[in-house]
C-alpha cells in the first residue's frame, strides 16, 4: 500500500512506474483536459454520493459519478497533506495475522492475543472480518477507484464514438465515390448526347441537301411530264383502245377472282367446322382423361388406406394371438399348480380327501370352462378374420 501511494503521488521519483501508475495516471491526463462532457438529463443522471471530507473543498455537484476528473497535482497535494496530518491509529488487538502480499493468507490467531511480529502501519490493511475502519485513505482509494472506472467507461465511450465516426466517414467516402461515379456516368451521357446532336445536325444538313436535290429532280420530272402529255395527245386513240381491252380483261379477272373467292370461302368454312368438331372432341377427351386420372388417384388412395388397414389389423391379430397364448400358458401353469397342490394335500391329509376331491373336481370343471371360453374366443376371432 505504501508503494502504491508513493508511486502514484511522488513527483520527484524517477524510478520505473508501477502497474497502478501506468493504468491510472495516463488516462486521467489524456481524457480529462481535452474531452468536453455532455450534461446528462435529470432522468438519466446517476445518484449523488454523500459529501465526504477529504481536506479539500468539495460541492454536491462534484460528487456525481459522471463529474469531471481530478488533476494529478490535486491528488498529489491531497495525499501529502493526508500523510502529514494523519493521527496515529488507536492501539487495538488484531484478530488475525497480517496479510502477506507475496504469499498465502496467514492462519487466524486466538482472540485477544495479538501477533508480536505485526506492526501498526498506517498503510496496513486490516482484517476484513474485524470491525470496519473507514479512514480517509480508504475513502480516497475508493474515490480514485471510482474515477478510474469512470475514466475507463469514458475511454470505452470515446472508442465507440471514434468507431462510429470512422463508420460514418467510410460511409461518406463510399457515398462520395458513388457520387463521383454517377457524375462520370452523367458526363458520359452528356458527351454521348452532344455527339448524337452533332450527328443529327449533320443528318439534317444531308436531308436539306436531299430536299434540294429532290426539288430539282421534280422540276425535271415536271418538264418530262409536259413532254409526255404532248406525246400523249398523239397516242390517245391507241391508248383508249388498249384501255378498253384492259377493262375487259379486268372484268374477266374480277369474275374469276369472285368465283375463286367463293370456292375458297366454302372450303375454309368446311375446314373451320371440322376444326371446331375436332377441338370439341379433344376437350371431351382431355376432360375424360382428367376424370380418369382423378379416379385412378382416388383408387390408389383407397387401396393404400386398405393396405394400411390390413397391416394394422394383421398386427392387432398377431398381438391378440400372442396375448392369448401367454394367457393360456399362465392359466395352464396355475391350473397345474393347483392340481399338484390338491394331490399333495390329498396324500398328506387323508382326512381331507373328500374336500380335495371336490376341489379337484371344481378345478377340472373350471379348466374345462376356460377351455370352452378360449375355444369360443378362437372361433369368434376366426369368424371375424374370415369376414374381414
TrEMBL record:
Residues 10-24, 157-168 have a biased composition (Basic and acidic residues). Keywords: Coiled coil. Residues 1-67, 80-142, 157-179 are annotated as: Disordered. Residues 58-67, 115-127 have a biased composition (Polar residues). Residues 328-355 form a coiled coil. The keyword Lipoprotein does not apply. This is SWI5-dependent HO expression protein 3. The lineage of its organism: Eukaryota, Fungi, Dikarya, Ascomycota, Pezizomycotina.
